[in-house]
Amino acid sequence: MFDGVARRYDLLNTLMTAGTDRRWRDAMVAAINPKPGMRVLDLASGTGVSTQALREAGADAIATDLSVGMLREGRRRYPEVSFVAADATQLPYADASFDAVTISFGLRNIAETQDALAEMRRVTRPGGVLVVNEFSRPTDAWFNAIYRQFLGTVIPQIARVSSNRAAYDYLAESIRAWPSQAELADIMVAAGWHDVSWRNLSRGIVALHRGRA
To answer: Is 136 part of any known ligand binding site?
Structure first.
């Protein structure tokens, strides 16, 4: 599904969020707090926008995604980045091989959420961190109502002009079905992560979860 939208995916995300996606990405990088030589796995990396941001902040970041089309577009844009095709539930990396793992707006696309989180735990060194940047649920009832209306009206309009309508129909549906902030934290704990916490971005449209291996 994502192969067909790879070329315009990042542009449409920026337009759809009025540029707020960049602030969310900056928040993820700050939560990782990259240091020179720090090995970071950017999972569900898409075209590598977040991977490049981590690299620019000093990390040795590797992009990994299941979509070959996304990886192909990423290699075209960022030839210096290492792109690896892999399933998030069966990562081709050794145990404890990363200082940090991050996944931005991709966890809800993995049916076996807890299995994927456990696999991320496996490849993270003891004491390393996981940062999950994902759509969530606004905490204010009135704002949540407005947001739900946005999901039901604006995103379908984008879907109609997109080259892959199914991808954007799926986007709205997957956001509505995604667990709350507290529910996702519980899933992370069940997958083996410790000291799990989160903070809301943009009134809870996005939540940034952080856990320690």
So the answer is: no
* Alpha-carbon gap, residue 21 to 24, rounded angstroms: 5
Q: What are phi and psi of 108, to 5 degrees?
A: -70, -10
Domain that holds residue 36: 5-136+179-212
User: Which pTM was predicted?
Assistant: 0.84
Nearest to 51 by CA among 82, 13, 93: 82
- Assess whether 156 and 117 both reside in one domain: no
Q: Is 87 annotated as a binding residue?
A: yes
Q: Are residues 132 and 163 in the same domain?
A: no
One domain for residues 158 and 122: no
**pLDDT, tens digit, 9 for 90 and up, residues 116-165:** 999 999 999 999 999 999 999 888 877 777 777 766 666 656 655 555 55
Other Cβ atoms less than 10 A from the Cβ of 23: the count is: 13
Q: Is 195 annotated as belonging to a binding site?
A: no
Amino acid at 43: L
> What does the alpha-carbon distance between residue 125 and residue 185 come to, in Å, rounded to a whole number?
20
Phi, psi of 63 (to 5 degrees): -90, 130
